[in-house]
Specification:
By secondary structure, the protein is of the alpha/beta class. It has two domains: about 130 residues, 2-Layer Sandwich (Nucleotidyltransferase, domain 5), CATH 3.30.420.40; about 170 residues, ATPase, nucleotide binding domain (Nucleotidyltransferase, domain 5). Helices cover about 40% and strands about 20% of the residues. β2 and β3 form a beta hairpin. Bound molecules: zinc ion (ZN). Zinc ion binds next to loops.
Length: about 325
């Protein structure tokens, strides 16, 4: 009987679960609420209960499931599937892989959620199974992941690829990580909104300032909309953000020499103009031979990248599959 794989993507509000075939196609997918009660102690049993029901409903015998791959937030030991800390769901010293393995009876493998998404994009999305790739996700924060020589780069303590915490303004504002001037403080949705609030003080006459005053808040989407409508401060924010992103991508690319750089996440959906500005900055900063070989593309899979990449992780761990 044809084997399939389960991919799980654990987030702060939902857990996405997918049953995925050997070629990376989604056979079924759904989401459950992330129950953060009692430091998230019910999450693992919730996942198995929901999965067990779904397998029964689809008449998929458990023995045809090769394993469960998980993308989880926080600091993770990639060899043991142990989560040291995942602040946004309340886990601390959580033996995720062991717990789910013991209740499901299936092999379980865990990766950082950003790395799982990168594997998914390279397997079935915009990556196209390349051997060297840099990926950024521009959302509430800035996530990153790197594939080198066909393998995800974890580093000595799982911290490799954290592009969002590379320093772009040494005296910049305080980041969530406790340091100053990380890429994330500029290029995340939160960072762009912070820039916008600063700008309104310098440009009280701007449409940006009146938008903030009338609605009481401003979003990254507002900034792109107002820039399109000709608002100068918003255009400056977008130009600066794109420039900083191009610089960070150039530096990462000089180290990795990738054939592709993928940009995903909510902020990247702002459109072609923004991506073009990032690309221009990247090409301006990068070494010619690094730039010439490298294509900059939008990620394609959206929310499915995590579950597809988690399924790839199972194939990688069980069959040593590489890109
Ligand atoms: Zn940081």
């Amino acid at each position: 009987m044809e084997k399939s794989i389960v991919g799980v993507d654990i987030g702060g509000t939902t857990v996405k679960i997918g049953i995925i075939d050997n070629d990376g196609n989604i056979l079924d997918k759904w989401a459950i609420h992330t129950n953060r009660t009692n430091s998230g102690e019910f999450i693992v049993s919730d996942i198995w209960k929901s999965l067990d029901e779904r397998l029964a409903k689809n008449a998929i015998p458990k023995k045809t499931i090769e394993g469960i791959g998980i993308g989880a937030p926080g600091f993770i030991d990639n060899d043991t599937g142990y989560v040291f800390e995942a602040v946004n769901i309340g886990w601390r010293n959580m033996p995720l892989s062991d717990e789910l393995r013991s209740i499901s009876g299936l092999p379980v493998f865990v990766a950082n959620d950003a790395n799982a998404a990168v594997m998914g994009e390279n397997w079935k999305g915009a990556g196209g199974n390349v051997k060297n790739l840099v990926a950024l996700t521009l959302g509430t924060g800035v996530g990153g992941g790197i594939i080198v020589n066909g393998d995800i780069l974890n580093g000595e303590s799982g911290m490799a690829g954290e592009i969002g915490h590379t320093t772009v303004e040494p005296d910049g504002i305080l980041c969530n990580c406790g340091r100053r001037g990380c890429l994330e403080t500029i290029a995340s949705a939160t960072g762009m909104v912070r820039q916008a609030k600063m700008k309104t003080k310098q440009h009280p006459e701007s449409r940006l300032a009146s938008r903030l005053e009338s609605s009481g808040n401003i979003t990254a989407k507002d900034i792109f909309e107002l820039a399109d409508a000709g608002d100068v401060p918003c255009r400056e924010i977008i130009a600066y953000t794109a420039d900083v992103l191009g610089l960070a991508i150039s530096n990462a690319s000089t180290l990795i020499n990738p054939s592709k750089v993928l940009i995903g996440g909510g902020v990247s959906s702002a459109g072609d103009v923004f991506i073009k500005l990032i690309e221009n900055a990247f090409r301006r900063y990068a070494l010619t031979r690094v730039s010439d070989i490298c294509e900059l593309k939008l990620a394609q899979l959206g929310n499915d990248a995590g579950i597809i990449g988690a399924a790839f992780l199972v194939k990688h761990k069980l069959h040593n599959l590489k890109f």
